[in-house]
Amino acid sequence: MSGSNEILEEFVQGEYKYGFTSDIDSDILPPGLNEETVRFISAKKGEPEFMLEYRMKAFRYWKEMKEPHWAHLHYPVIDYRKISYYSAPKKPKEIKSLDEVDPELLRTFEKLGISLLEQKRLSGVAVDAVIDSVSVKTTFKESLSKLGIIFCSFSEAVKEHPDLVKKYMGSVVPYTDNYFAALNAAVFSDGSFCYIPKGVRCPMELSTYFRINSAGTGQFERTLIIADEGAYVSYLEGCTAPMRDENQLHAAVVEIVSHADAEVKYSTVQNWYPGDKDGKGGIYNFVTKRGICLGNNAKISWTQVETGSAITWKYPSVILKGDNSVGEFYSIAVTNHMQQADTGTKMTHLGKNTKSTIVSKGIAAGKSNNSYRGLVKVNRGAKNARNFSQCDSLLMGNNCGAHTFPYIEINDKSAQVEHEATTSKIGEDQIFYCNQRGIDTEKAIGLIVNGYCREVLNKLPMEFAVEAQKLLAVSLEGSVG
Amino acid sequence: MNNEVDEMLEIKDLKVSVEGKQILKGLNLTVNKGEVHAIMGPNGSGKSTLASVIAGKEDYTVDGGSITFNGKDMLELSADERAKEGMFLAFQYPVEIPGVSTINFLKTAIAEIRQYRGLPPMEAKDFLKMLKEKQKVVEIEANLTGRSVNEGFSGGEKKRNEIFQMAMLEPSLAILDETDSGLDIDALRIVATGVNKLRTKENAFVVITHYQRLLEYIVPDFVHVLYQGRIVKSGTRELALELEGKGYDWIKKEFAELAV
Lengths: 481, 260
Ligand SMILES: Nc1ncnc2c1ncn2[C@@H]1O[C@H](COP(=O)(O)OP(=O)(O)OP(=O)(O)O)[C@@H](O)[C@H]1O
Ligand SMILES: [Mg+2]
What we know:
The structure holds two protein chains of two kinds. Chain A is α/β, with parallel strands linked by helices. Chain A has helices at 2-14, 35-44, 49-63, 103-112, 116-122, 131-146, 154-160, 162-168, 179-187, 428-436, 441-452, 454-457, 462-475; strands at 150-153, 192-196, 206-207, 222-227, 232-239, 249-250, 253-258, 263-270, 284-293, 299-306, 311-314, 317-320, 326-335, 340-349, 355-364, 369-378, 386-395, 401-410, 416-425. In chain A, helix 11 packs across helix 13. Chain A is globular. By secondary structure, chain B is of the alpha/beta class. Chain B is 40% helix and 28% strand. Chain B contains eleven helices and twelve strands. Chain B has helices spanning 3-6, 47-55, 79-84, 102-116, 124-137, 142-146, 155-169, 185-198, 212-217, 237-246, 249-254, and strands spanning 7-18, 21-32, 36-40, 61-69, 72-73, 87-90, 97-101, 148-149, 173-177, 204-208, 222-227, 230-235. In chain B, strand 11 (222-227) and strand 12 form a beta hairpin. In chain B, helix 7 packs parallel to helix 8 (185-198). Chain B is globular. Chain A binds chain B through residues 427-430, 432-441, 443, 447-448, 450-455, and chain B through 55-59, 78-80, 83-84, 88-89, 91, 94-100, 105-106, 108-110, 112-113, 116, 148, 165, 169.
């Protein structure tokens, strides 16, 4: 890992050149993390007092914490004092035309079938055409607000809907939860906020894609989704194209609250820059995602396709508090080259007749490491809790690793917990069979892997599923050869 | 007959080894357009090896000889390119591909083959029409083709699915490796009838089998006996009948010097 150590060094030192300045009008905060930094961020965003207080509490708590190292991951020590915590509005590097963009990146875009316009936006070419999405955003925001749905940036919510934010922020992931959650609470930049009122079914998939301001706010994102009684929403997160957002630490927090009879579906396609073949560069993605089924018959469903990032540390979880509530986790995690992923879920059964389903498909290629880590916990009194877990690993080649760490904690005898796990290798016989029908090896791998992931892909909204399929094939390119 | 025009597959002095063990030891075989060749021979004599090597499986080392198909050197081409050139292998042990429906699988295959040949993509409605037509030819149930490729299929269903795929891909040369084994009597007749319906003057079949029963339905022009990595005897249908009656002992005796 000396390669990424170097890069990280370069990255953190790179920030040094801006020197120290506490001028509130400046766009970049010098590296360093202290109370001053937190105050600066809050002031810069014009936040109300309660938000600053929250940040300060989180910061003081974080200062006393130690970074966790229990995951099956290896990475150099991160010096949090050397990271710059505020750099918005992030001005993209001036690129005048696509000719100046890395051709490899353009090739990937082409394979993903991303429009030229979108290609320009994603690779940071200065174009005005982005306006398109702004108009999309407005029309769409109007029709939502007619239904009482609030969908805006987190910063906006802090100002416009402080009561909702105060009530729910930190109610699912308190800043005391873990190291990265504390750090996020102290210095979060922005994110999304979504509230669906009682009995309302959100008529469209809500997507960060439409939120123009999401592009520059990745580093410490914070998302809060609340579905009031009987409400329904399907939320899509992510970027389906690689951003050359090299060597950054992403420590996001996502909180979901599902009230009685409400349902939230949260789908992610994560494709941050994974670093190059030798493990240079790439994002460190340390995310805390958790939902709570607060009322009876509530449902939360996480679906994720993780193909990017150098390191992924992520466990979207559900607390099943209401009786008869349902938690689901469907995951595909692909690692290639030097990537590392430690991902899974936690299902905590508190209510009666609660049910959880876990389907995890890990695919490891190259020299990568892919771990599933899951906890199914049934508390005393959670009568007739049920869980079904299926964890499959697919290995490509002999230099990668797949690991499964299923933890089960049962404190009620009436619980029924089933765990199935398989590890398989992509068969040369399967590839030859495809070859013999005229399908070349690269396409064959795409086909076989997509087939292997079918169960999870089927859970994604239609357009997302198509993109995810292409993404899987592209991520594994050159993995057999 | 003009050989230059009709010659489809020509294998000359083919020597093949796997893991240091020589399996094919100088094999010769010529198949012309419109012909059906049957290959018989004891277990382990190298029949499936021959089929795999023709199809381009990489585990085998070609130590010598040549394989020419429609005038092209096949040893220069990868397995998928050979398929795109019009070769098809019905596997002795068809492989399962979970999560990929046979329909989707064939759609992908046809798209790839057409692209290689410089043809435009097939229209969805033409594809569906063809699908229905061919399902009828091999009497395969539609629900089978909607399921994942061979996953959970019975032995006989897998074999029938191979023939269905062959029908869909319309190869010029089809090698059937023991497609008859595992089929019940009715299925055998259906599969054979399907093959006969697909026979034209332009295509050819190489049928590997242990049983002369199949050859009652699919009548071969030639029957070859593969023994110890070589074709040691060639003849007509009668040879198959003779083998059925006498077994392989007389062959083994006659060619005892080959068994080293
Ligand atoms: N991949 C391999 N590794 C090692 N030995 C092999 C391999 N493939 C084939 N062989 C050997 O080569 C010989 C020929 O095998 P092959 O499968 O071609 O026989 P066959 O004529 O098709 O037999 P059957 O009638 O039983 O299907 C056998 O001895 C077999 O064990
Ligand atoms: Mg065989």
